[in-house]
């Protein structure tokens, strides 16, 4: 089913079975600069291990989780306990909820120190996110390419440039039929913050 959350505002980037909408200038540059500086300095960034093919490996990036402390969240064999919202994260949450008319309980924060940091192919399809989750992805700092492709055929592969202050909304069936990754980018030597707002049931 192709129900559109944002029919008049922007086009769906996915050709079938899911929806992704990009708003490149969601936050103005000055506001995005402010959030990048504040979040870099104030969030509890840590490098955490995950389990991959039965092995414990360190993630190639730093992470932090904020939101409802009663609801822990886990993926790839790790459990994260959320810290309470900071003023900046709450401000961003409010803006995104107003705009999307969706509700979120948590934000998973990723800090890519430079182009050597990355995230491999995956879907955000944990049971606690529900059947067809809406996920709001906000980027500050270095521009990086976000890639998505159908989970079963592995093609076509779409490149989406996520710039400073951008918002990407993923909804509908996107987490069933599409996987995504943030590949390494050898020439990038600046840091990037990505926030994915999620609703845990
Ligand atoms: O850094 C990004 O743009 C992607 C992050 C992501 O896919 C995730 O946190 O699940
Ligand atoms: Fe993801």
From TrEMBL:
Keyword set, alphabetical order: Dioxygenase, Oxidoreductase
Coiled-coil regions, chain positions: none
This protein's name: Alpha-ketoglutarate-dependent dioxygenase AlkB
Fe2OG dioxygenase domain location: 103-201
SUPFAM superfamilies: Clavaminate synthase-like
PANTHER family according to UniProt: ALPHA-KETOGLUTARATE-DEPENDENT DIOXYGENASE ALKB HOMOLOG 3 (PTHR31212)
GO MF term set: dioxygenase activity
Source organism of the structure: Algoriphagus taiwanensis
InterPro entries found in the cross-reference section: AlkB-like (IPR027450), AlkB-like_sf (IPR037151), ALKBH3 (IPR032854), Oxoglu/Fe-dep_dioxygenase_dom (IPR005123)
């Amino acid at each position: 089913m192709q129900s559109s959350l944002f029919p008049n505002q922007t086009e769906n980037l996915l050709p079938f079975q899911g929806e992704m909408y990009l708003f490149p200038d969601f936050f103005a540059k000055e506001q995005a600069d402010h959030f990048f500086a504040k979040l870099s300095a104030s969030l509890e960034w840590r490098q955490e291990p995950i389990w991959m093919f039965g092995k414990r490996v360190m993630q190639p990036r730093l992470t932090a989780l904020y939101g409802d402390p009663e609801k822990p969240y886990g993926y790839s064999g790790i459990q994260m306990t959320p810290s309470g919202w900071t003023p900046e994260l709450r401000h961003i949450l409010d803006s995104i909820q107003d705009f999307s008319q969706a509700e979120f309980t948590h934000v998973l924060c990723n800090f890519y120190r430079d182009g050597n940091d990355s995230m491999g192919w995956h879907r955000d399809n944990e049971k606690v996110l529900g059947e067809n989750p809406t996920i709001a992805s906000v980027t500050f700092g270095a521009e990086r390419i976000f890639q998505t492709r159908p989970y079963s055929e592995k093609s076509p592969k779409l490149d989406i440039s996520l710039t400073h202050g951008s918002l990407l909304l993923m909804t509908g069936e996107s987490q069933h039929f599409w996987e995504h990754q943030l590949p390494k980018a050898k020439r990038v030597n600046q840091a990037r913050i990505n926030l994915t707002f999620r609703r845990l049931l």
